[in-house]
Design goal:
The chain is an alpha/beta fold. It has one domain: Beta-carbonic Anhydrase, Chain A (3-Layer(aba) Sandwich), CATH 3.40.1050. About 35% of the residues lie in helices and about 20% in strands. It has five helices and five strands; from the N terminus they run H-E-H-E-H-E-H-H-E-E. The longest helix has 17 residues. The structure holds zinc ion (ZN). Zinc ion (ZN) binds next to loops.
Length: about 170
């Protein structure tokens, strides 16, 4: 079991390693990732991200929901504040979905999904919760609408059986 004492021990190792020194709140290359909370698919692990490399947001399925979009809008303001009021241009946003996602199990609970997506139940099919290759394409389109021009939005699907990502939307 990983208890609090073990977490503190691991943190002491992290602190001793010094990887935290001098990091900026603004990520390297303005990289942003939205992915799933599944413990197998932490973007830092599967994409090899180090501390400070990316702003990572995680929710059930890594879905671009109204709540996620509101959080990205807030983060854009944080970025402006930390760069003296100048909007941070460009950069990249990766939507990372994965195979065997637990959101598929929620298809049996449509009321939870309609709350999550803030949509009527009749629109649920358009969210493609059973198919990560379809859902990542749908969510990339939503992010492209929401992000300022100049932000490169791409969609990846991680395969939990092979450990590899496939670029679905370059
Ligand atoms: Zn998932």
């Amino acid at each position: 079991m990983i208890d609090t004492a073990e977490l503190v021990r691991r943190n002491a190792e992290f602190a001793a390693g010094g990887a935290f020194v001098g990091l900026s709140l603004l990520s390297t290359g303005n990289l942003r990732v939205i992915g799933c909370v599944d413990p197998r698919v932490d973007p830092s692990h599967v994409l090899g991200l180090a501390a400070g490399d990316a702003v990572v947001m995680r929710n059930v399925g890594g879905r671009v929901t109204p709540t996620a979009l509101r959080s990205w809008a807030m983060l854009a303001k944080v970025g402006e504040a930390r760069s003296h009021g100048r909007p941070q241009p460009g950069g990249q946003l990766v939507v990372l979905h994965h195979t065997d996602c637990g959101i598929r199990d929620l298809a049996a609970y449509p009321e939870l999904l309609t709350d999550f997506f803030e949509i009527p139940v009749g629109d649920l099919d358009a969210k493609a919760v059973m198919d990560p290759y379809a859902s990542v394409t749908i969510d990339v389109a939503l992010m492209k609408q929401a992000m300022p021009p100049g932000v490169l939005v791409s969609g990846l699907v991680y395969d939990v059986d092979t450990g590899l990502v496939e670029v679905v939307v370059p």
